[in-house]
Amino acid sequence: MKSFNELNLHPALAKAITGMSFTTPTPIQAQAIPIALKRNDILACAQTGSGKTAAFAIPILSHLLEEPGSMALVLVPTRELSSQVTEVFRQLALHLPMIRVVSLIGGVSMQPQLRALSKGYHVIVATPGRLVDHLERKSATLKNLKTVTLDEADRMLDMGFAPQLKQIFRHLPEKRQTLLFSATLPNHIQDLARNLLVKPERITIGAVSSAVPTIQQASKHVGQTEKNNTILDEINGREGSILIFGRTQRRVDRLARYLESYGVDTGRIHGGRTQGQRNRALEEFKTEKTRVLVATDIAARGIDIDHVAHVINYDLPQVPEDYIHRIGRTARAGRKGEALSLISPEEKPLWKEIEKLLKTKPGTVVQARQAFQPAQ
Length: 376
Ligand code: AMP
Hints:
It is built from 14 helices and 14 strands.
Protein backbone atom coordinates (compact mmCIF):
# COMPACT_ATOMS: atom_id res chain seq x y z
CA MET A 1 0.00 0.00 0.00
CA LYS A 2 1.54 3.27 -1.12
CA SER A 3 -1.30 5.67 -0.48
CA PHE A 4 -4.39 5.88 1.71
CA ASN A 5 -6.51 6.22 -1.45
CA GLU A 6 -5.90 2.56 -2.30
CA LEU A 7 -7.88 1.51 0.75
CA ASN A 8 -11.28 2.78 -0.43
CA LEU A 9 -12.02 4.10 3.01
CA HIS A 10 -15.32 5.73 3.96
CA PRO A 11 -15.17 9.29 2.51
CA ALA A 12 -15.53 10.88 5.96
CA LEU A 13 -12.56 8.88 7.23
CA ALA A 14 -10.49 9.65 4.13
CA LYS A 15 -11.30 13.35 4.56
CA ALA A 16 -10.12 13.29 8.19
CA ILE A 17 -6.84 11.58 7.19
CA THR A 18 -6.22 14.31 4.63
CA GLY A 19 -7.15 16.92 7.23
CA MET A 20 -4.45 15.53 9.54
CA SER A 21 -1.93 16.02 6.71
CA PHE A 22 -1.21 12.29 6.50
CA THR A 23 -0.35 12.02 2.83
CA THR A 24 1.84 8.93 2.74
CA PRO A 25 1.35 5.96 5.06
CA THR A 26 4.26 5.27 7.41
CA PRO A 27 5.79 1.76 7.07
CA ILE A 28 3.80 0.33 9.97
CA GLN A 29 0.60 1.79 8.51
CA ALA A 30 1.39 0.46 5.04
CA GLN A 31 1.81 -3.02 6.48
CA ALA A 32 -0.75 -3.17 9.26
CA ILE A 33 -3.80 -1.39 7.84
CA PRO A 34 -4.53 -3.78 4.93
CA ILE A 35 -4.14 -6.79 7.25
CA ALA A 36 -6.31 -5.26 9.98
CA LEU A 37 -8.97 -4.31 7.44
CA LYS A 38 -9.20 -8.01 6.57
CA ARG A 39 -9.92 -8.60 10.28
CA ASN A 40 -6.82 -10.71 10.79
CA ASP A 41 -4.90 -10.65 14.08
CA ILE A 42 -1.61 -8.77 14.19
CA LEU A 43 1.51 -9.02 16.32
CA ALA A 44 3.43 -5.84 15.58
CA CYS A 45 6.80 -4.80 16.87
CA ALA A 46 6.92 -1.10 16.20
CA GLN A 47 8.98 1.74 17.55
CA THR A 48 7.45 4.73 19.22
CA GLY A 49 6.82 7.54 16.77
CA SER A 50 6.23 5.11 13.90
CA GLY A 51 2.61 6.13 13.36
CA LYS A 52 1.25 3.00 15.04
CA THR A 53 -1.79 4.72 16.54
CA ALA A 54 -3.33 5.47 13.16
CA ALA A 55 -2.25 1.99 12.02
CA PHE A 56 -4.86 0.49 14.33
CA ALA A 57 -7.31 3.42 14.60
CA ILE A 58 -8.04 3.65 10.85
CA PRO A 59 -9.12 -0.01 10.43
CA ILE A 60 -11.03 0.08 13.72
CA LEU A 61 -13.08 3.09 12.61
CA SER A 62 -13.61 1.54 9.22
CA HIS A 63 -15.05 -1.61 10.86
CA LEU A 64 -17.27 0.41 13.16
CA LEU A 65 -18.78 2.13 10.13
CA GLU A 66 -19.47 -1.21 8.49
CA GLU A 67 -21.04 -2.65 11.63
CA PRO A 68 -23.05 -0.07 13.51
CA GLY A 69 -23.64 -1.14 17.10
CA SER A 70 -20.26 -2.83 17.44
CA MET A 71 -17.44 -1.49 19.56
CA ALA A 72 -13.66 -1.61 19.94
CA LEU A 73 -11.33 -1.49 22.92
CA VAL A 74 -7.80 -0.11 23.07
CA LEU A 75 -5.78 -0.93 26.18
CA VAL A 76 -2.89 1.37 27.02
CA PRO A 77 -0.40 1.45 29.90
CA THR A 78 -0.58 5.11 30.93
CA ARG A 79 -2.98 8.01 31.21
CA GLU A 80 -0.80 10.10 28.92
CA LEU A 81 -0.90 7.51 26.16
CA SER A 82 -4.64 7.17 26.68
CA SER A 83 -5.21 10.88 26.02
CA GLN A 84 -3.03 10.74 22.95
CA VAL A 85 -4.71 7.69 21.47
CA THR A 86 -8.15 9.15 22.27
CA GLU A 87 -7.13 12.36 20.51
CA VAL A 88 -6.07 10.46 17.36
CA PHE A 89 -9.43 8.61 17.32
CA ARG A 90 -11.30 11.90 17.76
CA GLN A 91 -9.35 13.55 14.94
CA LEU A 92 -9.95 10.60 12.63
CA ALA A 93 -13.66 10.60 13.57
CA LEU A 94 -13.97 14.34 13.09
CA HIS A 95 -16.57 13.90 10.32
CA LEU A 96 -18.22 10.92 11.97
CA PRO A 97 -20.34 12.47 14.72
CA MET A 98 -22.08 9.15 15.42
CA ILE A 99 -18.85 7.56 16.66
CA ARG A 100 -18.36 8.09 20.39
CA VAL A 101 -14.88 7.67 21.85
CA VAL A 102 -14.58 7.33 25.63
CA SER A 103 -11.38 7.41 27.64
CA LEU A 104 -11.33 5.46 30.93
CA ILE A 105 -8.24 6.19 32.98
CA GLY A 106 -7.33 5.72 36.59
CA GLY A 107 -6.48 8.48 39.05
CA VAL A 108 -9.39 10.70 38.06
CA SER A 109 -13.01 10.86 39.21
CA MET A 110 -15.40 8.11 38.09
CA GLN A 111 -18.39 10.44 37.61
CA PRO A 112 -17.51 12.03 34.23
CA GLN A 113 -16.59 8.56 32.91
CA LEU A 114 -19.93 7.11 34.09
CA ARG A 115 -21.77 10.00 32.43
CA ALA A 116 -19.82 9.52 29.17
CA LEU A 117 -20.47 5.76 29.17
CA SER A 118 -24.19 6.24 29.80
CA LYS A 119 -24.45 8.18 26.52
CA GLY A 120 -23.12 5.20 24.55
CA TYR A 121 -19.67 4.34 23.23
CA HIS A 122 -18.03 2.78 20.18
CA VAL A 123 -14.38 3.06 21.11
CA ILE A 124 -13.09 2.69 24.66
CA VAL A 125 -9.49 3.70 25.26
CA ALA A 126 -8.57 2.51 28.74
CA THR A 127 -5.87 1.80 31.25
CA PRO A 128 -6.40 -1.77 32.52
CA GLY A 129 -7.11 -1.07 36.21
CA ARG A 130 -9.87 1.44 35.59
CA LEU A 131 -11.50 -0.69 32.92
CA VAL A 132 -11.69 -3.58 35.42
CA ASP A 133 -13.47 -1.21 37.87
CA HIS A 134 -16.04 -0.34 35.20
CA LEU A 135 -16.54 -3.95 34.18
CA GLU A 136 -17.06 -4.96 37.80
CA ARG A 137 -19.65 -2.30 38.44
CA LYS A 138 -21.15 -3.08 35.01
CA SER A 139 -20.94 0.52 33.84
CA ALA A 140 -19.19 -0.75 30.70
CA THR A 141 -19.70 -3.94 28.76
CA LEU A 142 -17.57 -5.48 26.04
CA LYS A 143 -20.12 -7.90 24.68
CA ASN A 144 -20.42 -6.11 21.32
CA LEU A 145 -16.65 -5.89 20.95
CA LYS A 146 -15.19 -6.72 17.55
CA THR A 147 -11.58 -5.59 17.97
CA VAL A 148 -9.28 -5.33 20.97
CA THR A 149 -5.91 -3.59 20.67
CA LEU A 150 -3.10 -3.83 23.18
CA ASP A 151 -0.93 -0.78 22.70
CA GLU A 152 2.57 -0.84 24.18
CA ALA A 153 1.90 -4.31 25.52
CA ASP A 154 5.45 -4.68 26.86
CA ARG A 155 4.97 -1.62 28.99
CA MET A 156 1.64 -2.90 30.33
CA LEU A 157 3.30 -6.08 31.51
CA ASP A 158 6.31 -4.19 32.92
CA MET A 159 3.87 -2.09 34.93
CA GLY A 160 2.32 -5.22 36.44
CA PHE A 161 -0.99 -5.16 34.57
CA ALA A 162 -0.98 -8.89 33.73
CA PRO A 163 -3.72 -9.80 36.28
CA GLN A 164 -5.99 -6.99 35.06
CA LEU A 165 -5.45 -7.99 31.43
CA LYS A 166 -6.44 -11.54 32.33
CA GLN A 167 -9.62 -10.27 33.96
CA ILE A 168 -10.47 -8.08 30.98
CA PHE A 169 -9.93 -10.88 28.51
CA ARG A 170 -12.52 -12.97 30.36
CA HIS A 171 -15.09 -10.33 29.36
CA LEU A 172 -14.24 -10.39 25.66
CA PRO A 173 -16.20 -12.33 23.07
CA GLU A 174 -14.20 -15.27 21.76
CA LYS A 175 -14.83 -14.29 18.18
CA ARG A 176 -12.94 -11.05 17.83
CA GLN A 177 -9.94 -9.46 16.22
CA THR A 178 -6.88 -8.91 18.43
CA LEU A 179 -4.10 -6.48 17.58
CA LEU A 180 -0.99 -6.43 19.73
CA PHE A 181 1.54 -3.62 19.42
CA SER A 182 4.75 -3.64 21.39
CA ALA A 183 8.04 -1.77 21.15
CA THR A 184 9.91 -4.90 22.16
CA LEU A 185 9.07 -8.60 21.91
CA PRO A 186 10.63 -10.33 24.93
CA ASN A 187 9.51 -13.87 25.79
CA HIS A 188 6.67 -12.87 28.08
CA ILE A 189 5.10 -10.81 25.28
CA GLN A 190 5.41 -13.71 22.89
CA ASP A 191 3.69 -15.91 25.50
CA LEU A 192 0.91 -13.37 25.81
CA ALA A 193 0.57 -13.27 22.03
CA ARG A 194 0.33 -17.07 21.86
CA ASN A 195 -2.54 -16.98 24.36
CA LEU A 196 -4.49 -14.13 22.83
CA LEU A 197 -3.90 -14.08 19.10
CA VAL A 198 -5.21 -16.44 16.45
CA LYS A 199 -2.90 -17.01 13.49
CA PRO A 200 -1.46 -13.52 13.75
CA GLU A 201 0.45 -11.83 10.98
CA ARG A 202 3.76 -10.61 12.33
CA ILE A 203 5.00 -7.17 11.47
CA THR A 204 8.37 -5.82 12.51
CA ILE A 205 9.32 -2.30 11.78
CA GLY A 206 12.90 -2.61 12.90
CA ALA A 207 14.67 -0.78 10.15
CA VAL A 208 14.93 2.95 9.95
CA SER A 209 11.57 4.31 8.96
CA SER A 210 10.73 7.70 7.53
CA ALA A 211 8.76 8.53 10.67
CA VAL A 212 11.77 8.02 12.95
CA PRO A 213 14.66 9.47 11.04
CA THR A 214 17.55 10.76 13.06
CA ILE A 215 18.27 10.55 16.72
CA GLN A 216 21.86 11.43 17.44
CA GLN A 217 22.87 9.76 20.62
CA ALA A 218 25.66 10.79 22.96
CA SER A 219 26.78 9.97 26.47
CA LYS A 220 28.84 11.75 29.12
CA HIS A 221 30.50 10.20 32.12
CA VAL A 222 30.08 12.51 35.09
CA GLY A 223 30.13 12.21 38.86
CA GLN A 224 26.74 12.15 40.57
CA THR A 225 27.37 15.58 42.12
CA GLU A 226 28.29 17.13 38.78
CA LYS A 227 25.03 16.21 37.12
CA ASN A 228 23.13 19.39 37.98
CA ASN A 229 25.87 21.64 36.63
CA THR A 230 26.26 19.53 33.52
CA ILE A 231 22.53 19.70 32.82
CA LEU A 232 22.55 23.47 33.20
CA ASP A 233 25.46 23.76 30.74
CA GLU A 234 23.72 21.45 28.30
CA ILE A 235 20.49 23.46 28.48
CA ASN A 236 22.38 26.68 27.85
CA GLY A 237 24.34 25.14 25.01
CA ARG A 238 21.32 23.73 23.13
CA GLU A 239 18.42 25.16 21.23
CA GLY A 240 14.83 24.00 21.39
CA SER A 241 12.68 22.09 23.83
CA ILE A 242 14.31 19.62 26.19
CA LEU A 243 12.79 16.63 27.94
CA ILE A 244 14.82 15.39 30.91
CA PHE A 245 14.33 12.04 32.63
CA GLY A 246 15.07 11.47 36.30
CA ARG A 247 14.86 8.23 38.26
CA THR A 248 12.58 9.17 41.14
CA GLN A 249 9.89 11.72 41.95
CA ARG A 250 12.22 13.38 44.47
CA ARG A 251 15.07 13.68 42.00
CA VAL A 252 12.72 15.17 39.41
CA ASP A 253 11.40 17.69 41.95
CA ARG A 254 14.91 18.62 43.08
CA LEU A 255 16.30 19.04 39.59
CA ALA A 256 13.31 21.14 38.52
CA ARG A 257 13.76 23.41 41.54
CA TYR A 258 17.48 23.72 40.82
CA LEU A 259 16.83 24.71 37.20
CA GLU A 260 14.12 27.17 38.24
CA SER A 261 16.60 28.78 40.63
CA TYR A 262 18.82 29.48 37.61
CA GLY A 263 15.92 31.05 35.71
CA VAL A 264 15.09 28.07 33.45
CA ASP A 265 11.29 27.72 33.06
CA THR A 266 10.77 24.09 33.98
CA GLY A 267 7.75 21.80 34.21
CA ARG A 268 7.53 18.52 36.13
CA ILE A 269 5.66 15.28 35.52
CA HIS A 270 5.65 12.28 37.81
CA GLY A 271 3.23 9.87 39.44
CA GLY A 272 3.13 11.90 42.67
CA ARG A 273 1.48 14.85 40.96
CA THR A 274 -2.25 15.13 40.36
CA GLN A 275 -3.65 14.55 36.89
CA GLY A 276 -4.44 18.29 36.74
CA GLN A 277 -0.83 19.22 37.55
CA ARG A 278 0.47 16.74 35.00
CA ASN A 279 -1.86 17.99 32.29
CA ARG A 280 -0.87 21.58 33.02
CA ALA A 281 2.86 20.82 32.92
CA LEU A 282 2.40 18.95 29.63
CA GLU A 283 0.28 21.72 28.12
CA GLU A 284 2.82 24.41 29.05
CA PHE A 285 5.60 22.35 27.51
CA LYS A 286 3.52 21.65 24.41
CA THR A 287 2.76 25.34 23.90
CA GLU A 288 6.42 26.15 24.58
CA LYS A 289 5.60 28.23 27.63
CA THR A 290 8.23 26.13 29.38
CA ARG A 291 11.29 24.99 27.49
CA VAL A 292 12.25 22.18 29.81
CA LEU A 293 10.15 19.33 31.17
CA VAL A 294 11.59 17.01 33.81
CA ALA A 295 9.87 13.66 34.22
CA THR A 296 10.07 10.15 35.58
CA ASP A 297 9.54 7.21 33.23
CA ILE A 298 5.81 7.74 33.45
CA ALA A 299 6.41 10.22 30.64
CA ALA A 300 8.64 7.96 28.60
CA ARG A 301 5.81 6.70 26.48
CA GLY A 302 2.86 8.47 25.16
CA ILE A 303 4.27 11.96 25.08
CA ASP A 304 4.01 13.01 21.48
CA ILE A 305 5.27 16.53 21.13
CA ASP A 306 6.74 17.29 17.76
CA HIS A 307 9.10 20.00 18.93
CA VAL A 308 11.08 18.00 21.51
CA ALA A 309 14.58 18.52 20.14
CA HIS A 310 16.55 16.91 22.96
CA VAL A 311 16.08 14.11 25.42
CA ILE A 312 18.51 14.11 28.32
CA ASN A 313 18.85 11.18 30.69
CA TYR A 314 19.74 12.85 33.98
CA ASP A 315 19.56 9.31 35.35
CA LEU A 316 19.66 6.17 33.25
CA PRO A 317 16.48 4.10 33.18
CA GLN A 318 16.37 1.00 35.39
CA VAL A 319 14.92 -1.08 32.56
CA PRO A 320 17.08 -0.97 29.39
CA GLU A 321 14.00 -0.99 27.09
CA ASP A 322 12.94 2.31 28.62
CA TYR A 323 16.01 3.91 27.04
CA ILE A 324 14.46 3.32 23.63
CA HIS A 325 11.13 4.74 24.73
CA ARG A 326 12.72 7.78 26.28
CA ILE A 327 14.80 8.73 23.27
CA GLY A 328 11.78 8.04 21.06
CA ARG A 329 10.25 11.21 22.52
CA THR A 330 12.46 13.20 20.19
CA ALA A 331 12.73 13.04 16.39
CA ARG A 332 8.95 12.78 16.19
CA ALA A 333 7.07 12.99 12.90
CA GLY A 334 10.11 13.24 10.68
CA ARG A 335 12.11 15.75 12.71
CA LYS A 336 15.66 15.49 13.98
CA GLY A 337 16.52 14.90 17.59
CA GLU A 338 19.38 14.45 19.99
CA ALA A 339 19.67 12.24 23.03
CA LEU A 340 22.26 12.66 25.77
CA SER A 341 22.82 10.33 28.71
CA LEU A 342 24.69 11.36 31.84
CA ILE A 343 26.37 8.32 33.34
CA SER A 344 27.65 8.33 36.89
CA PRO A 345 30.15 5.65 37.95
CA GLU A 346 27.36 3.72 39.76
CA GLU A 347 25.34 3.64 36.55
CA LYS A 348 28.00 2.01 34.39
CA PRO A 349 26.47 -1.49 34.70
CA LEU A 350 23.09 -0.08 33.61
CA TRP A 351 24.71 1.60 30.62
CA LYS A 352 26.32 -1.70 29.63
CA GLU A 353 22.88 -3.31 29.64
CA ILE A 354 21.55 -0.55 27.40
CA GLU A 355 24.45 -0.92 25.00
CA LYS A 356 23.79 -4.64 24.84
CA LEU A 357 20.12 -4.07 24.03
CA LEU A 358 20.93 -1.52 21.34
CA LYS A 359 23.35 -3.91 19.68
CA THR A 360 20.65 -6.58 19.47
CA LYS A 361 18.19 -4.08 18.00
CA PRO A 362 20.15 -2.18 15.39
CA GLY A 363 16.99 -0.69 13.88
CA THR A 364 16.40 1.35 16.98
CA VAL A 365 19.75 3.08 16.76
CA VAL A 366 19.19 5.32 13.91
CA GLN A 367 22.36 7.30 13.97
CA ALA A 368 24.58 6.35 16.85
CA ARG A 369 27.19 8.94 16.09
CA GLN A 370 28.73 9.10 19.54
CA ALA A 371 26.56 6.61 21.32
CA PHE A 372 29.18 4.23 22.50
CA GLN A 373 32.13 6.41 23.29
CA PRO A 374 34.37 4.55 25.71
CA ALA A 375 34.37 5.50 29.37
CA GLN A 376 36.72 8.38 30.13
P1 AMP B 1 2.53 7.46 16.83
O1 AMP B 1 3.63 6.46 16.60
O2 AMP B 1 1.17 6.89 16.52
O3 AMP B 1 2.60 8.07 18.20
O4 AMP B 1 2.71 8.66 15.76
C1 AMP B 1 3.84 9.49 15.76
C2 AMP B 1 3.62 10.79 15.02
O5 AMP B 1 3.53 10.56 13.62
C3 AMP B 1 2.37 11.54 15.40
O6 AMP B 1 2.73 12.89 15.57
C4 AMP B 1 1.45 11.39 14.22
O7 AMP B 1 0.60 12.51 14.08
C5 AMP B 1 2.43 11.30 13.06
N1 AMP B 1 1.93 10.51 11.93
C6 AMP B 1 1.29 9.34 12.00
N2 AMP B 1 1.00 8.87 10.78
C7 AMP B 1 1.47 9.78 9.89
C8 AMP B 1 1.48 9.86 8.45
N3 AMP B 1 0.97 8.91 7.67
N4 AMP B 1 2.06 10.94 7.88
C9 AMP B 1 2.59 11.90 8.68
N5 AMP B 1 2.63 11.88 10.02
C10 AMP B 1 2.08 10.83 10.63
